[in-house]
Amino acid sequence: MSFVDVVKEDDPTNNVPDTIYSKIGLQLHRRDNHPLGILKNTIYDYFDKSFPGQFVKFDDLCPLVSTKQNFDDVLVPADHVSRSYNDTYYVDSQTVLRCHTSAHQAELLREGHRHFLVIGDVYRRDSIDSTHYPVFHQMEGFRVFSPDDWSGSGMDGTAYAATDLKKTLEGLATHLFGAVEMRWVDTYFPFTNPSFELEIYFQGDWLEVLGCGVTEQEILKSNGRTDHVAWAFGLGLERLAMVLFDIPDIRLFWSNDQRFTSQFSKGKLGVKFKPFSKFPPCYKDMSFWINDEFTENNLCEVVRGIAGDLVEEVKLIDNFTNKKGMTSHCYRIAYRSMERSLTDEEINDMQWNVREEVKSKLRVELR
Ligand code: PHE
C-alpha cells in the first residue's frame, strides 16, 4: 500500500498526522476580521442582495464525513484518484476529512433545502508551495429549480439552469473584482454536466475563480428532487483572498501574529496586505533513490510533520534513472518563517530530522 509509511502505526487505515488534526475546529472562515471571514461575508452579501431571503447558509458543518458523503453521494467513480490515501485524509476506512464542500450536497437536499451555501475547511494531501496548504476553505453554492421556473422560458431545464448559473456567477465575480474580463472554460466534474470553470483576467493573468455546473440528475433523483434541475458551484476562498488582499503566502492565513491579524477588519474587502518584513529563505537539498511506493505527497507530509509552517516549498529539482533502473530524486526544501529570522542551528536540526525520517518512514536510500 502506498500510504503505509505515513499512517499511524496502530491503525493502517488512518493517515491523518497531528499537524492536520490540530487544524480541525479552528474555523478561520468564521472570524469576521480574518480575510477568509471578510470574503465569506462579502459573498453572502451578494447572494442576500440578488436573492433576498432565499439562500440558507451553513458554515459550521463537521469536516469529518463518511466516504459515502464525500464520494458516493456525488458520484465520484470508484477508481477516481481523489479516493486514494495519497490524496485524501482518512480517519478510518469509512471516514475522511472532507476534500470538498460538495460532500454536503446530498444531505442538505434530503433535508429539503433548495438554495444553500456551505462554507467550511477542506483537507487534501498535496505538495508544498506558496499556494498549496493541506487545509483550505471552500464555499459551495446550490440552487434547485422546479419545472414551473423554466416552463415559460423556451429553454429546457438544463439550458435554463446553465444560463442562470452563468449569470449568477458573473455577477458574483463582478461583485468581488469589479468590471473584469471573464471567460468560461468547459471542464469535467463527476457531479455536474455540463461543467465549467470561470476565469477572470486580473493583474495580467487568467485566474481560475471556481468550478461549477448543472447537477447530475441522479443526485437530484436520489435525494427527493425528481423532475427538478439544479446548479452547483464550488470556490476556494484562499485563492481569491490571496489575490484580493495581496497575501503572498497561503501559510499567512494561519498566522496569529498581530502584525498580520491587525491589518484586516470586518467588512473591508481588498485592503492590501503590507508585509511586515521579508525574512530570507534557506534552501536545503536532499537526494535519494526512490522506491515504488514513493510519492511527493508522502514526502511533503514528513517535511511538514517536522518543520510545520516553517517550510515554504518542497520542489523536485533533479530526477534521473540510472542503468540499473534506479531512479534518483533531488528535492530542494525552502525554509522560511513569515514572522522571524530562522537560525542556522534550527534549520540544520530540522533538515537533519527530515533526512532521518525520510529514510526511516519512506524507506528511501539517501545519496
Ligand atoms: N467540488 C469541486 C472541487 O472541489 C468544485 C465544484 C463544486 C464543482 C460544485 C462543480 C460543482 O473542485
Automatic annotation (TrEMBL):
Entry keyword set: Aminoacyl-tRNA synthetase, ATP-binding, Ligase, Mitochondrion, Nucleotide-binding, Protein biosynthesis, Transit peptide
Reactions listed under catalytic activity: tRNA(Phe) + L-phenylalanine + ATP = L-phenylalanyl-tRNA(Phe) + AMP + diphosphate + H(+)
EC code: 6.1.1.20
Pfam short name (any one): FDX-ACB
Every FDX-ACB domain range: 277-367
InterPro entries: aa-tRNA-synth_II (IPR006195), aa-tRNA-synth_II/BPL/LPL (IPR045864), Fdx_antiC-bd (IPR005121), Fdx_antiC-bd_sf (IPR036690), Phe-tRNA-synth_IIc_mito (IPR004530), Phenylalanyl-tRNA_Synthase (IPR002319)
Top-level taxon of origin: Eukaryota
Subcellular location(s) per record: Mitochondrion matrix
GO molecular function: ATP binding; phenylalanine-tRNA ligase activity; tRNA binding
NCBIfam families: pheS_mito (TIGR00469)
Annotated protein name in UniProt: phenylalanine--tRNA ligase
Organism: Aegilops tauschii subsp. strangulata
Taxonomic lineage: Eukaryota, Viridiplantae, Streptophyta, Embryophyta, Tracheophyta
